[in-house]
Each structure stands twice: as C-alpha cells, then as structure tokens.
Amino acid sequence: MSNKTLQLYRQLIRESKKFKSYNFKEYSIRRVSLGFRENKNVKNSEELDKLYKSAEENLQMLKRQTLINSMYAHNKLVVEQ
Amino acid sequence: MLRSLSKVLNSNMFRPTTSMNGYLYRNYGSDARLGDKEITDRVIEIVSNYDKVLGKTVSPSTTFKELGLDSLDAADVLVAVEEDFGIEIPDEEADRISSLKETIDFIKKTPTAK
C-alpha cells in the first residue's frame, strides 16, 4: 500500500477517535479499518483514484461531524465507565 | 482507573528531585521526560493488546512484520501509541517506523510525550 494511502488512513483513524460519543467513535473506526481492508487488493489505478477521492471526502465529513459532536454534552455509556 | 493511577505514579513528573521540609517537589526546568524503561514497557503493552498480536511474545527488538501485522495494522498500532503518549507522529516518521525499537526511539526523542 502506498505511503499516501497509509497517511490518509492514519488521518481517518485519528479523526474518528475524536468523536465523543462511543457509538459514533466505534462505528467510524470500524468502518474506516474495514473499508481499507476490503479494498487492499485493488490494483486498477483508476479505481484506486476513485477510492482515494471518496476517502478524502469522508475525511472532510468526519472532521465536520467530530466538531459538531464535540459541541454537545455526552454522558458516558455503561460500557465506557 | 487503576491503569491511569499507576501511570501517574510512574511518571517522572511526580518523582521528587529535591526534598525540603518534608515536602517533595520538582524543580522548574528539570527534565520531565519519560524514562527509557517506562516508554519501552508502555509501547510493549500497547502492541501486545492489539487484537492480532494477543498471545504472541513481544520484545523491543520485534518488527511489526514478525508479529504478522500488515501496513494497515502497523498504522493502527502507531495511532494507538500516539493516543497513549499524547503526541502526533509526523507522516515522514510514521512511514519509516516498522518496528518497536523505532517506535520507542521516536518517543525518546519527543520531549512532549507523556
């Protein structure tokens, strides 16, 4: 996997960890890591470009959502305590 | 809870360098950096708690590949290390790190690690 892709992956995981609510956080970490693993054998450069673009868009979306998420108070779930 | 408590107790910040009138305090400007052993222990703990590593023996000289981790798994481990030490590993460094020893060395030269 190219360094560029790994950098994007790290950014996505870091951003996902910023969610304050447990469910959002766990879902996005799981979704990011599964998504990258699902497509790890893709060789077609056209398809890779498409995937890279959609991951970038998702990163922007995650940034917006973690920010919004942090503006609201959250009680910890029982599993987090 | 217990883990965070032991972290506080282990951290150099509370290790007294001077004692006066029975009070323990740390001088301003004295080195608050983490000790080598503590860094090694914590990195080993993080790595051995990663799903795919559970049950394998982890030593400071192991590489991620030897533990059966691919590049994505290694990225997961590095982000977990970043979170635990409260630092961010820059991309150029993170691309180069492929073993526990390199991870530990990077944290050693990062003064903000806690």
UniProtKB/TrEMBL annotation, chain A:
Protein known as: LYR motif-containing protein 4
CDD domains, sorted: Complex1_LYR_LYRM4
GO annotation, biological process: iron-sulfur cluster assembly
Residue span, Complex 1 LYR protein domain: 4-61
Gene Ontology cellular-component annotations: L-cysteine desulfurase complex; mitochondrion
Origin species: Tieghemostelium lacteum
One Pfam family matching this protein: Complex1_LYR
Family note: Belongs to the complex I LYR family.
Highest rank taxon of the organism: Eukaryota
UniProtKB/TrEMBL annotation, chain B:
GO molecular function, one term: acyl binding
A Pfam family per the record: PP-binding
Protein localization: Mitochondrion
Domain Carrier: 37-111
Key words, A-Z: Electron transport, Fatty acid biosynthesis, Fatty acid metabolism, Lipid biosynthesis, Lipid metabolism, Mitochondrion, Phosphopantetheine, Phosphoprotein, Transit peptide, Transport
Stored SUPFAM superfamilies: ACP-like
Main location class: mitochondrion
Entry's Gene Ontology cellular component terms: mitochondrion
InterPro entries xref list: ACP, ACP-like_sf, PP-bd_ACP, Ppantetheine_attach_site
Gene3D superfamilies (UniProt xref): ACP-like
Pathway(s): Lipid metabolism; fatty acid biosynthesis
Keyword Mitochondrion in record: yes
Family: Belongs to the acyl carrier protein (ACP) family.
Function field: Carrier of the growing fatty acid chain in fatty acid biosynthesis.
Protein name: Acyl carrier protein
Origin species: Tieghemostelium lacteum
